[in-house]
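FAQ: What does the model actually see?

It sees only this:
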Amino acid sequence: MEILPTSLGTRPRLAIEIRAEGVVAARAEDAAALLAAMARGDLAEGVMMPGLKAGNIVDRAAVIAAVRKALDGVVGRGAERGRDVTVVVPDAAVRVLLLDFDQLPSKVAEALPVVRFRLKKLLPFDADDAAVSYQVMSNAKGMVRVVAVAMPKDVLNEYEDIVTAAGYLPGAVLPSTLAALAGLDEAEAPVLVVNAGPGAVTTAIVRGGVLLLHRSVDMAGESRVNEMAMTGLPLPLVDRESSAQEWAQQEAQTPGGYDRFDAATAMQTQVLEQAEIREIAAIAAAHEVVQAVSVAAAYFEDSLQVEPEEVLAAGAMGAEALAAMMQEGGLESLKVHELVDVGMLQAGAMTASVPRGWLAGVRGALKN
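And it is asked to produce this:
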């Protein structure tokens, strides 16, 4: 199974990206990856929980239905089911690392065990029981730099199984940001790419086709609460689930049972409090995105001795929302543009239901 930013061969002309926010499929007629058709399948919140442990797919039936809908939408209502598909998976489900070696065997069969051995102390999961791949980024001055990608096999199997159950054959598997980067031209000018969605953000820097930085931040779960605490954002003082249990255990306040007026008031208060919690989480997530971009921009300037002038946006967040966050966070000097421009789409192929930010991963996966 290929888990690489680029391919040595020809990948399928059909690709799908599976994200917690939804899935998007696209088709291209040749390796130039001019998108001929695209379709999207939405997922409800909580249906997917991308991560490095098994259980990424919470509602299997819902994800299969979304994948089938999206793929059928670009190949003609299932008329060509059984085709090979490049599968783009969330960055949170993989680990991407830049590694330096004094030397590395030229043959993949000999180099892969060396790379896997280096990963043993760097991965939060067993490197021996993981799908591992690598690609040489540079080889000069007695140092070999590679980008290594590792994914737990049980997690990889989850995503492959979903595509198979939808009626298609999983071919290459690519992490979201590396797939998006594969769609860039190998220009000498360095590029800063931000792949952001509600639950995670990845920043990457590429120059001349060489990956210089890849940094992912998971904004889900405890990380949001920790971020709220560190930034001084207000935290909820009461555990909502415990409060609901306490309410249910209260004694009747009137001879007829619970006070209906007070019960209704309590329910309305709980709804408002939950909305407040979601708002706090959104603020914390926006802060995390701005912080990630700020760190990447500083690395860009330090390593390349020039300030970045623009950011290319990929992912569900989109350029407009990302620009608004950056302006609010004091990074208004960085101009934000979509990584996928209109010139990458066939005339009439774009629809309002598939924003361009969603297409970065599948477009890169289709380009050779």
